[in-house]
Amino acid sequence: MAGGGASVANDGLPAADYGGRLTLSVLTTCLVAASGGLIFGYDIGISGGVSQMEPFLERFFPHVLARMAAAKRDDYCLYDSQALTAFTSSLYVAGLVASLVASRVTKAVGRQRIMLMGGALFFAGGAITGAAVNIAMLIIGRMLLGFGVGVGFTNQATPLFLAEMAPTRWRCSLTAGFQFFLAIGILITNLINYATARISWGWRLSLGLAGAPAVIIFIGSLFLTDTPSSLVMRGRVDDARAALLRV
Predict the structure, then answer these.
(1) pLDDT tens digit sequence for 214-247
(2) How far apart are alpha carbons 35 and 17 in whole angstroms?
């Protein structure tokens, strides 16, 4: 870990405090990792706005748009479609499947590699949904987004990475950075949806811009070292020592 608090020895006396300063390297590392919350926040906010854009519904779900136009009292009483439900929920289904194996994979290959993989999958999913020409592409893209971030890979590796890298006395503050970036991601998607709703192809922009936070976490992860705890668990003690010296 980047640091540790005072531990208690067997005789009941406090052991040496090896410190755990909040260095620039530690802070930068944790901020880059916490930015993984952006992709989850973006995903949470984007589908709700896009699924209400008329150009999007007209292209992929015209029957929903027709029902809405014919509704006399409440548009949303007729806002039902199995295909539209599949588009929205496919991300969460994929995330659920990913979560079943995420812990084992994260333990086996390390936190940093999982963040790299999550960023790559999320970028691919954003590109496919942004360029979609049929419902199948939308669902496949959403599933890639779910595998990339889901409740699975990146969403498990990033908080774990933060907890293992943060100094003891700063751990709560730095791990909360993931939630902060998640909220920022939701805010950004709402602003983007508000702006693109006035453009006929705005839904493509909203979906495709998912690649932006994916690029941030992918490129940022390239410059991160895996956590010393993860390296020790995989038998790479020398690399763990080097990682401690680096931060």
Answers:
(1) 888 888 888 888 888 888 888 888 888 887 777 6
(2) 30
Instruction: List all residues 6 or more positions away from 22 whose beta carbon is below 8 Å from its beta carbon.
Output: 167, 170
Query: Taking the mean position of all CA atoms in its chain, how far away is CA 143?
Result: 13
Tokens standing for 66?
Answer: 């027709």
Contact 149, 39 (CB under 8 A): yes
Q: What is the 3-state secondary structure (H, E, C) of 190-228?
A: HHHHHHHCCCCCHHHHHHHCCHHHHHHHHHHHHCCCCCH
The pair of structure tokens assigned to 11 is 């005789």
Q: How far apart are CA 123 and CA 214, in angstroms?
A: 5
Instruction: Let me know how long the chain is.
Output: 247
Q: Does the structure show a pLDDT above 80 at 64?
A: no
Cα separation, 164 vs 232, in Å, equals 12
Angle between helices 171-196 and 153-165 (to 10 degrees): 140
The H or E element spanning position 54 is helix 54-60
Strand partners, 192: none
What H or E segment, with its residue span, contains residue 187? helix 171-196
Please give the structure tokens belonging to residue 23: 């260095």
Nearest residue to 41 via CA among 239, 186, 170: 186
pLDDT digits (tens, 9 = 90+) for 157-208: 888 888 888 888 888 888 888 888 889 989 999 999 999 988 889 999 999 9
| CA 243 centroid distance within chain | 24
Q: What are phi and psi of 8, to 5 degrees?
A: -110, 125
Tokens of 197: 């709703």
